[in-house]
Write a structure and sequence with these properties.
The chain is of the alpha/beta class and 450 residues long. It has helices at residues 10-13, 19-26, 96-112, 132-145, 147-151, 165-174, 185-204, 221-233, 255-265, 303-308, 324-332, 340-343, 346-355, 360-385, 389-405, 408-426, 429-447, and strands spanning 2-3, 32-34, 41-43, 48-50, 59-65, 70-76, 84-91, 118-125, 155-158, 213-217, 236-242, 245-248, 277-279, 291-294, 313-314, 336-337.
Length: 450
């Protein structure tokens, strides 16, 4: 069954191949496509670009086929000039509500960084103990089901929690597309921007590295990279958790030993013997850290946890880590909450720069200097105005979306033409494009909250 909202979506997909027609043709199958509603759209011959992030997604697709054990969702919150993008979350208990919240966060993120993509997210309710072949079959089948959107470049799948680059490749293969890309480096770049935000918060509160104690909830790929950055900087990681428990050492965890234990035992590393104490994961939140970093699931930080937190700032690497009540409690306790869709923005900005040929040193400088300076200005403005950093950042996201929906499309077309001409002359088009993008990002980050 295919339900359309009162506003026809045909114009939304007209320039993206036959996606809508294919979905209509598949509507009688064993899965459902549900169109919920639209935000305020600026439809032009070149784009379907939101002028602000709406509360409701553009549309949702539910894939439910008991015959092969496939159940999942794709939520497209918005569509930009280049389509929409978002990771595929693989968890046994993932649901539509979580995917919807994550898709909206992606819309805010792309708007904040003025990238002409809409926000989307997919989630598959998948057991994590499947064999490799069973896993690949489900991923390829999911790719086949959403194939019309992938082939027509409406939706670009990406890596996410429990979803590696190899998993993403299987989804593309199921959609009938061969893609040669590196989806795994986004975790590193997300950790880099998270570290830059953490360091900026420490600078804001004048906390020296040696006195900066940090806890990480959810030591996955991003958390491990972040732990290495914290130790290299001179800070102290005093606690880290997984879904199986937490490990704490108030003098500081040995990050090298922690990473080795994670590689040996996965989430069970917290129960390995080591220079740490194994505790219940709830104990992590009452350690008295300076900065807490949620790297776990949506709404993992509840109002009860917020009540027990005793820190200066929360810098989430996760999207939507706090419930609304938890956000209110943190504000009441004057604990700074830096919005996750800004903190982990390196995950969308970094890979593109690296693929254009930017060195690690150049990308690190961008985040530690320009991005970090922006975080400090945001925190200062939040204290000065009494508005939450999240509210300030969402306003900036809408400003970015308005800029993309306005006269920016034509200007960027002219820029790309100039790059092609210059590229032919000096035979380094990627380097020219990379320098242009770096200049744009520096200008953008320096402008935010100024």
């Amino acid at each position: 069954m295919l339900k359309l909202s009162p506003v026809s979506c045909r114009r939304r997909f007209r320039l993206n191949g036959l996606a809508l027609g294919c979905l209509q043709g598949r509507a009688g199958g064993k899965y459902k496509h549900i169109i919920w509603g639209f935000g305020k759209m600026d439809i032009s011959p070149c784009a379907a670009q939101l002028e602000r992030v709406s509360d409701l997604p553009l549309f949702e697709i539910e894939v439910d086929d008991p015959s092969c054990g496939l159940k999942g969702w794709l939520v497209v919150h918005s569509i930009g000039r280049r389509g929409c993008c978002g990771g595929v979350r693989l968890c046994p208990d993932v649901g539509r509500g979580e995917v919807r919240l994550l898709a909206r966060a992606m819309a805010y993120k792309y708007g904040f960084f003025e990238i002409a993509l809409g926000g989307a997210k997919a989630g598959l309710s998948m057991p994590l103990d499947l064999t490799g072949d069973e896993r690949n079959v489900l991923l390829a089948e999911f790719g086949r089901r959403i194939g019309p959107l992938v082939k027509s470049k409406v939706y670009w799948p990406w890596s996410d929690m429990n979803c590696s680059g190899a998993d993403v490749r299987k989804i593309y293969e199921g959609a009938g597309i061969g893609v040669d890309a590196d989806w795994d480096n986004s975790a590193y770049f997300a950790s880099l921007s998270t570290f830059a935000a953490l360091k900026a918060a420490a600078d804001h509160y004048r906390i020296e590295p040696a006195r900066c104690t940090v806890t990480i909830e959810g030591l996955g790929k991003v958390g491990r990279h972040l732990a290495v950055e914290i130790e290299r900087w001179g800070g102290r990681l005093i606690g880290a958790s997984t879904c199986k428990g937490a490990a704490v050492n108030c003098k500081g965890l040995d990050v090298g030993e922690v990473v080795a234990a994670v590689l040996r035992a996965g989430d069970d590393w917290v129960h390995e013997k080591g220079p740490w104490e194994t505790v219940d994961k709830e104990h992590l939140f009452s350690l008295g850290m300076e900065i807490h970093v949620p790297c776990a699931r949506v709404h993992s930080l509840t109002d009860r946890i917020a009540q027990s937190l005793n820190c200066r700032a929360v810098a989430p690497a996760a999207n939507v880590p706090c419930t609304p009540d938890a956000e209110a409690k943190l504000m009441e306790k004057q604990i700074a909450l830096i919005p996750g869709f800004v903190v982990n923005g390196g995950g969308i900005a970094g890979p593109g720069l690296m693929n254009m040929g930017a060195s690690d040193a150049v990308v690190r400088q961008l985040f530690l200097e320009n991005f970090g300076g922006m975080i400090r200005r945001m925190m200062q403005l939040s204290e000065k105005t009494g508005k939450s950093a999240s509210a300030l950042a969402k306003t900036q996201s809408n400003v970015g979306l308005s800029a993309l929906a306005a006269g920016e499309v034509g200007r960027k077309k002219r820029d790309r033409k100039g790059v092609r001409i210059l590229g032919k002359r000096i035979n380094t088009p990627r380097k020219v494009e990379m320098r242009r993008r770096l200049k744009e990002l520096r200008r953008l980050l320096n402008r935010r909250f100024s």
